[in-house]
User: Which sequence fits this backbone?
């Protein structure tokens, strides 16, 4: 069976989805470079950059089995570390400062997304282990 044909529609959708993710990343990047550091903006820019990389990656190389395998490993790493970061950022502030009602927002907006970005990068590097092209 032709695998390029079976993945054509999802690859087109991924390519279309990559456009707004890329535009958001490019709009947020100059503020981070100019020294106006805002943890929330940088976190979301990194998350959207990672999403755009995955979408472009699948749109361009999604027909290749080896590339899809690496995407799966990178996504799995992202979801695992993202979940760990989310739980740590959500539960940690509740345990440290029970009276702080905004503590769990750390896990939702900072540690969870950054964990996903870091985990995806580690998963991508790990996907090359044991394979020589």
Assistant:
């Amino acid at each position: 069976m032709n695998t390029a044909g079976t993945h054509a529609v999802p690859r087109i959708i991924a390519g279309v989805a990559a456009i707004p993710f890329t535009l958001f990343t490019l709009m947020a990047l100059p503020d981070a470079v100019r020294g106006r550091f805002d943890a929330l903006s940088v976190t979301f820019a990194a998350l959207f950059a990672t999403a755009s990389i995955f979408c472009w990656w699948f749109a361009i190389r999604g027909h290749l089995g080896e590339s899809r395998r690496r995407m799966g490993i990178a996504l799995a790493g992202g979801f695992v570390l993202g979940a760990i970061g989310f739980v740590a950022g959500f539960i940690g502030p509740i345990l440290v400062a029970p009276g702080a009602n905004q503590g769990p927002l750390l896990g939702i907006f900072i540690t969870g997304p950054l964990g996903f970005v870091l985990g995806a990068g580690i998963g991508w590097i790990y996907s090359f282990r044991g394979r020589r092209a």
Observations:
- The chain has two domains: 1-63, 65-133.
- Residues 1-63 form one domain.
- The chain has five helices and no strands.
- The chain has a mean pLDDT of 89.
